[in-house]
Every structure is written in structure tokens, then in C-alpha cells.
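Objective 1.3, modelling of assemblies. Example input:
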Amino acid sequence: MQLSHHGKVALTITALVGVALGLVSYKVSRLGYSLADVLPATQYELTYALSFDGHGGDVRVRSFLPTSGAHQTVSDERDVSSGLHLAQAMEGANRVATWTGAEVRDGSEIRHTFKVLARRVSYDIPPELPVPESYPPSVAAYLRPEKAIQVDAPEIGATVERIRSAEGPLLERLRKIYDLTVALTPRPFKGTTDALTALRLGEASCNGKSRLFVALARASGIPARLVGGLIMQPGAKRTSHQWVEAWVAGHWVPFCPLNRHFAELPERYLVLYYGDESLFTHTKDINFDYRFETRSALVPSPRAKASFTFVDVWGLFDRLNLPFSLLRTILMLPVGALVVVLFRNVVGMPTFGTFLPALLAAAAGETGAVFGVVAVVITVAVVAAVRWGMQRLELLHSPTLAILLAAVVFSLLTTTLLADRLGIAPLTRVTLFPIAVLAICAERFYLSLTEHGGRAAGKELAGTLLVMLACYILMNSLALQVLVIGFPEVLFLVVAANVYLGRWVGMRLSEYRRFRGLLRVTP
Amino acid sequence: MTGLSALRARARALLARRGAVVGINRRNLALVYPNNARNDYPLADDKLLAKELFVAAGVPVPETLAVCDGLFAVPATIEALRGQRDFVVKPANGSGGGGILVVGGWEAGRSCWLLAGGVPLSPVTLGRHLADIVFGVHSNQLEDRAFVERRIVPHALFSSLWADGLCDIRVITLRSVPVMSMIRVPTAESGGRANLHQGGLGIAVDLATGRTFRALHHGRAIERHPESGAPLLGLELPAWPEVLEVSRRAARAVPLGYLGVDVVVDRDRGPLVLEINVRPGLEIQNVNGAGLGPAIARAEGTA
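Predicted structure (C-alpha cells):
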């Protein structure tokens, strides 16, 4: 019972693991790859949902749309307006959108959608950095008073005196102003609050605190401006947000006195405009209403795509116009197959074929796991019924399979049709399932049913679905996908694991149950 | 605390006993792969090929009445069988008993055979069945051969266990040395199949004495037949030394080292080898109440 080639196997595994780890460490240490970049980023899809009654007359709606920068990247923008014209123009740093229309009916809607990938930015302000004597003219404009930012009001001046925010280095001044505005009692948004009112009341919402911050900063000799935007959270809401930026050595540095962010901007903040503006201005008396709808999804980190370029399969797929989903499906198949091997050879769970569960899991990427299982069960039931009906014809194997293929096509089309009727969108995508894989799965079920009976066939089907779910969870892990794309040598580890399992003589878990009578201690 | 240490002792004992039991992974890696070359599998999987080797080596097998190796040979096969009684039609590469016809008598008046159950079988129907076998309907491959064997009349001891068909003796051999054995008995519950998972009985036979000492039905040890009530333990098998001898000779006749040899005992001809299996099942361990591990080690010592 001595196993031969023990040394060869050990050597193969060592070589595979060595090469994989070597390549990974080479990429990390020499090519600037970062393992942290495999973690996915959250991409938000935002929709402005605007509604109004045009009463058959002219309508004009003006708002701001976000621009891309260091903090946020905006993409996939599209506009659905019922008959309105969208014009865009840059006004300073702001992208202004104006929708106009004539003879606009009641109950009209504008839906403007875009995707945002944002990252947290933070700034270190040197403690000794002084406040400059003078500023370039474009920046100096941000020292002047505005209607709701009463820089020259005596009470503002007195407050600057009291907290001594007009003396010392820049950081110290900012800290004093920040602390004062943070200390104001927060209150829910109730319309616009100017800087002076916020100071007198000692309480304010985001816009009151921000205006007071800007007024005090300007009065202390620091250029500052309001920023308008949104805090992105999945769901629908009407609340927008305001915070501030101060001019620090050539950079506009963000502060949010309401949510206590000092010199940093969290990932969830979306910048829409700068200055004391209102987000929407529109024709009077049109019963205007708005809503921000936000959805979030995990996407590969843009830094991973930019830096994982040693063997740039990602870029190759982009150039060839092949979808990212195809790339990750291909690369994850060996991982899925390893999962199947573990379940079959270590757990001892029966499945249809060695790789069917992994292939099914790959296909379920289109429908989601639950509807993937539903699709498999429906197809297997339909095909088994057809097969049962054909049995009395006693046909040869290949023509039988060809007929089953047709049955799969019919059952998929019918499923799609019904899913469409019932409004189950993910299930309509079952037609993207590889038909041959389903046909083979159904055929295996039928053979097992006739050869081993309903119990065994049911067990195998349940095993197949369970392993398919396990494969799905692993194969659809975005972090794992990006890891394999950036470090394909990780697949050598998968191969090494298979070599090990290929020589593993241990008992399967199910066999502990099967042979429990032999393993039990005899009294 | 004592409960925990008792549990630990039990786990240790379980791990110690684990070495005796052979699981599927170990069977394949340590027994099947090193002893059976894959390109020799057809010698076992194709019952006709195996039979040719057995005949050449003088291993007793059921008498072959006819071989039908193509559609053109169907009419000649029918003619050869006209008037014959007590024969069995089988596909060479069948599995799970599919495609097997057991014929009892011949009715000269109607010019047709009678199946074992008494149903008439016309030459046209038999011809169609042979054509199906030849086209691979019963063997999941593109073509196959059909062969016809003399029906075996089981020794009285076996027909007392199951009257309507065959009980066979499974002998596991490692390099021609018998390692473990059992009788597989079909039941009404198993639908006449000798499959242990479908309600058939497994009866362990002591290699040294040829006596039955343990019987298993649905994983539970029993002493009497669950349907007839006949006692199952302490039976002395007929011609046991010869059963072991034909198993050894069958194993020597093929270049395969780890086998399940299926033997039947004919009332007149004694032990005959039915077929061999290159991946013999592991349930025999449960039937014998012992793992294959120690038996394999002993066999390796003698082989």
C-alpha cells in the first residue's frame, strides 16, 4: 500500500507554490502592485428624479451636475427628459444644467442618471504654515462678504476677536473656527440659515454652520467657500448637504462642521457645486418636486485596473471589446472546479459530473444564485419529463440528447416568457445559460433516476445545487476575481491544491457515516 | 471533564480504526491505479473479451451459445437459437443489468420462446432486442455486441436464498490472492437486482472456511432472510475451495491486479466465473464488519 512518486508529488507542489509566491512578491515589491487594491470599490448610481406640472406652458429648470476630480469620478451619464431640452455650460468650476421645454404637460418628469466612483481624500496641514499676506485676485474674491455670509458684521468681528482666530498659523485659526461651528447645536434642516443667524441662535443645520464657518474664515483672513452636494446612501431622499472649503497653500481643503470632518472628505460625499447657490431653480408655480435616488454596487477598484499591467489581460479585453464579466468567469472557473473537487473528494457529496456545478455557477452570474437554482430545477424537471416520455421510443443516445437540447431551449424560452409576464427581471436572463450544460445536467439526472432511483437522483441534484451555490459565492467574489486578474499565478496555488488532493487517500466525510459501524469502538 | 476525556478517547479510537477502512480515495490511489492499467479496463468492462481470456486460460465460464456482433448477424443468431431452451441474452458492455433477457422454454407450436416469467417472445421481438443491443441502446456507447449464454441452474443453497434468479459470490482479489468475499442476494424489494443499496442482502463468507458469518440488509446486521425468514448465518457454501480457485485463476488470466470476481455455483458444473470488475465496491467492508486494510496487508504479505 506504499504510495509511489511521493517525492515527485511533493516537488511539484513545492515548485507550484514557490513560483506563485515568487511572482506575487515580485509584483508587489518591484512592480508597485498593491494587494489592498484587489478589494472592490463602491460605485454609486445616482438619479435626479424631478417632477413638475407644466400646465401646457414653458418650463425651465436649472441645476448642477457633478464634475470628475481627485475625489470623484463621474461616468455613464444619461438623461431621460419628457420632451425637455438639456443644455450644459461651465460657470466657473460648476457644471450648470438647464432643462427647457415649451408646452410642457402636467406630471412631467426628468430623470438624469450618472455613476460615481469616489474616494476619501484628506489633507495634512503643516502646523507652522503661516497665513499669507496677500492672495491672487481670483482667490481674494473668496474673502468678500456675501448676502448670507456677513463677513463685515460687527458680531462676526467680535467673535473672531473672542476666539482669536485672526492670529497665529493657519492650522490653529482653522481649528478654532472649526471647533466653534462644530459646537453649535445641530438641528435638522429647516430652510436657509445665514451666518449671523446661526451665530445668534447658537444652533444650525449644515448650511448655517457652513455659512458661519465661511464668514469667520474670511474675517480671519482665510479664503473660504461653500460646497453643495449629497451624501450618497442607497435609497431615495430629498436632503442635500453643504460643507466648506478653505484655501490652504494652493489647495481647496474640505471641512464639514456638521459631521465633523476636519481637512478631509469622506468617500460618500458627492460634490455638485461651489458657492452659495441653490441646487434647483425653476419656473414659478409648476409644483416642482425632486428626489435623489441612489443605488450602490461593488466594482473593481480603479487603482487595480491602472496598476495591474504586468500581463495586461484586463487591458487586452478592453481593447478587444470583450466584457469584463467574461474575463472574470474564465479566470474563476479553475477556482470553482477546485471547490467541486473539495466537495466530491473530501466531503463526498455526489454531484452531476465533475465540473457541472462550477459551470452552472458561472452561468448563474447572469441571473443571481437564487434564480440560477430556479432555472436549473425548472429545466431538469421539464427535460426529465420529456425524457420519460421518450423512453418508450427506445432511441439511440445521440439523437436522444439532441431532442433534450430542444427541450431545454423550449423550457428556457417559456421560463423567460413567464418571468417577463410576472416581472421577475433576473429570471428573464436564463436564456444566457449555456444550453448544453443544462441539457447534460438534465440527462445526468434522468440517468441517475433510472439507474439508482429517485432518492439517489434527488441527492445528486441537491448536491449539485449546493456545490453550485458554494462555487457561486466564491466565483462571484469581486475581490477574488480582481486578485486572480492581477495575480493569475494564484491559479498555480489552485493547481497545487489539486495535485495534493489528487494524491490524498484520506476518508471522505461521508464515508465516516457510511462505515460508522466499522469505526465505532466495540464494547 | 471525564466526559471530555472520554470523547477524546473515542476520537482517538476512531482515528486508529480509520486506517483499517478503505475509502474511495484510498481504493483508487492505493489499489486500483497501481494494479490496474487503464488501457486494460476493456478486458474487464467487455464481458465477451474477458470471457475469451478465461476460456483460453481454462477458467470455467457459462457456455456461450451465440455471439451477435453486428446487425448482419442478427438473423443467424435467431436461427441458431430456434428450438433452444434456458438461455440468457446479454449486452457485452451493459451495466446495472440493463438489456438482459432470460429465456426459459420454447413453444414449437407457436414458434416462439417463453421468457422466465412466462411471457411469449417471438423471433421478431428477439431480433429487435438484439439490434438494440448492437446499436448500444443498453450500454451508452455507439455500438456493442450481444451474446447468448446457457442459463445457469444455481446450486440448491443459492436457489433457497432467491428462487427467481441468480445470487453471485463476490471475491475481491489482490494480485490473484482472495482478500474478502460476500454473497449478494436479490430480494423482492430490490426488484430482483443484487444491489445492496436497493434492498438486496449481503452475506459475508469466511475465506478460510466458506461459512457465512454475517448478513446485512439496509445497513443493519440480520440473522434471517427479511422476506422468507430462512437462516442466513453458519451456512456452508458448496465447493468453496473451488470457488476460491476459479477466482484466483480468473484473476491470473487478466493483466489486472485488483479485482472483484463474480462467481456463481451451477448445480451441475460447479463454480463458474460470470464477470470481473476493476473498481469493486466498498460496501463489502460493511457486510463483513471489517475494513479491507488488514486483509489487503495480509494479501500483500503472501502475494
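The radius of gyration of chain B is 21 Å.
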